[in-house]
Amino acid sequence: MTDKTQVAEPRRDEATLLPPVDVIEDANGITLYADLPGVSKDKLRLQVEGETLSIEGELALDMPEGMEAIHAEVELPRYRRAFTLSKELDTEKVSAEFNHGVLRLRIPKVEHAQPRRIQVQVL
Amino acid sequence: MLYRSLFPRDLFAELDRLQRELTRGLDWSPSIRGLARGFPAMNVGNTPRSVEVYAFVPGVDPASLEVQIEKGVLTIAGERKAEAVPENAAVHIDERFAGRFRRVLTLPDDIDPNAVTARCRDGVLHVSVARKEAAQARRITVQ
């Protein structure tokens, strides 16, 4: 997992955008997709601290000088979202891809938490 | 100031917007295209030389985007496919948009439909439409 520290630490009370996500769980782990349009790779910050996974990104748009906004649906310069992980997830082996403003995170389950078929005994 | 703004604001434009929103809310005569807020989210800005449109299209292949200007109307259309869900998987959160989209925006009268550039970076489509030369303010020298 990469920890990019060049992104300034935001203040706790700062208003941020909540990126929409999809979370899909299969037998071997969890895949998370998050929409973070406008964030470049070096302005994305992923962090696992204890059991908290946090995703943060800073938006930048190419704006010509002297531009005045006439309509804005995306008004804040930062995305932030956090999730609580559970103990069967292996935070050491998280992998991340970031393409066209979509983050894909894969968090595998720890070995012993991987599926084993449990034999049901009929008494 | 509670937060920094991403998009430049101007107090008069804000008041104007507020007034428009109030009028829409009270007078039942909303825009004919509705109070569209959907996918993709859009920001629009004005400069003396151009109109700048930003459409937030994360995960959409730039080559598959359709951007069209016809009769002074800008249309942005495309499709975003849903992520593949493996067999026996559980979908815990499903918030991201999937499917076909189309958003339409009326441009000002003074734009030049032949002077348009469209670029896509980090999931944001930026369309810049120049205004016609004649409409740009020119400084007149007093002799």
UniProtKB/TrEMBL annotation, chain A:
Residues 12-123 form the SHSP domain. InterPro entries: A-crystallin/Hsp20_dom, HSP20-like_chaperone, Small_HSP. It holds the Pfam family HSP20. Belongs to the small heat shock protein (HSP20) family. This is Hsp20 family protein. It comes from Thermochromatium tepidum ATCC 43061.
